Amino acid sequence: MIRVLIHGLSPNLGGIERYLLNLVQSLQGADFHFDITHSDVGAPPALSGELAALGCSFYPVTPRARNTRRNRRELQGLMAQGFDVLHFNATSASYLAPVRAALRSSVPVLVHSHSAGSPPSTRSRAMHFIGRASPALAKTRRIAVSEPAGRWMFGPQRSWDVIENGFDPEPFQFRPETRDRLRLELGLSSRSAIGHVGAFLPAKNHKFLVSTFAEIVRQHPEATLVLVGAGPGEEQLRSHIAALGMEERVLLLGGRTDVSDLLSAMDLFVFPSIYEGSPLAVAEARAAGLPAVVSEAVPESMSGGSTNRMPLAAGPERWAATAVRLLTSSDRTPLPSGLPTLAEHALTMAEVYRGLSVVSDASSGSRRGLT
């Protein structure tokens, strides 16, 4: 059995968390066992209940910002517990302490890039580029969810592989009975539901989204914005909603595990991200047949049909005009994601883990004086 230690879960339910749950569901069993390490920030990782039910154990680690020495000591102790692979999921290279700890213990590392950018903080970007040049990163197996995510995390030299996320569209297909039930629960009645799914983080550009919605309301008063997600930007988002006088028109549903149902209740999907890796939320909206307006951060392979790609520079007014035009569409034909299935992706990841475990076995033998 190959023991895989996963790093990268946060308390905020987002694309990485849902991706990792799908992966564990696909592979946990006789050949692989997954456990989770996470920063001890006072809240459990998102989907921890579901992952625990699958047999995952959780190893909290003191955050670096709280105590750097304790963070390093706890990580080093964790890496001595017999793991065969560290699967390090990240959106930037600014924090590589788990990678360095694993390498010091001869645990092979898979670095998995899920994003194509970071918030425009001078400090965080500087730390990312310092980390990207780290010799430790060069000693790992490197993969990315897309070309832009690979270039962002590892640089322009092609020292990494693209392994696209897996996705099964069937659970997200439009269901009229689900739509009727949820619209009644949410009090939507005959109102047009403009939807978004994503954590409240700078990359998701919620301020632009709410400003676009305010413009939609000017042209289409019978509209409600449905926001699915949570995160550190929630207070700031609420303030922006209030400043635009939209409090009675916006539903903040928090993190939800019934996204597949909620998409059936929506009439339009708006996704103005500043940067993305491979946004599963857009693939899900396309599977639900939702017309959508998305930014150019979304790959072209996820556009076309009723998914309209627009530059953010066009501004909220033009985005709103496109959105209102799409609201007149009653067609809910599912659109392809262009992604492999979950089963296909799981097979690919299994081969990656097996390849790394061979390295782990060789390292263990060397330490015992057997090679």
Which CATH C-level class of the largest domain is it? Alpha Beta
Tell me the distance between the termini: 22 Å
Total discrete domains: 2
Shape: globular
CATH homology group of the largest domain:
Glycogen Phosphorylase B
Major sheet size, sense and barrel closure? 7 strands, parallel
Mean pLDDT equals 94
Task: Report the total helices.
Answer: 14
Structural class: alpha/beta
Low-confidence stretches: 367-371
Describe the structure.
By secondary structure, this protein is α/β, with parallel strands linked by helices. Helix 1 (15-27) crosses helix 14, helix 8 (176-186) crosses helix 11 (259-265) and helix 9 packs across helix 13. Strands 3-2-1-4-5-6-7 form a 7-stranded parallel sheet, sandwiched between helices. The protein has a 6-stranded parallel sheet with strand order 10-9-8-11-12-13, with helices on both faces. The protein has 2 domains: 2-166 and 341-367, Glycogen Phosphorylase B (Rossmann fold), CATH 3.40.50.2000; 170-327, Rossmann fold (3-Layer(aba) Sandwich). The model is unreliable at 367-371 (pLDDT under 50). The radius of gyration is 21 Å and the shape is globular. It is built from 14 helices and 13 strands. Helix content is 41%, strand content 17%. The protein has helices spanning 15-27, 48-53, 68-79, 97-104, 122-132, 135-138, 147-154, 176-186, 206-219, 234-243, 259-265, 280-287, 315-327, 342-367; strands at 2-7, 32-39, 58-61, 85-90, 109-113, 141-144, 161-162, 192-197, 223-228, 250-254, 268-271, 292-295, 307-310.
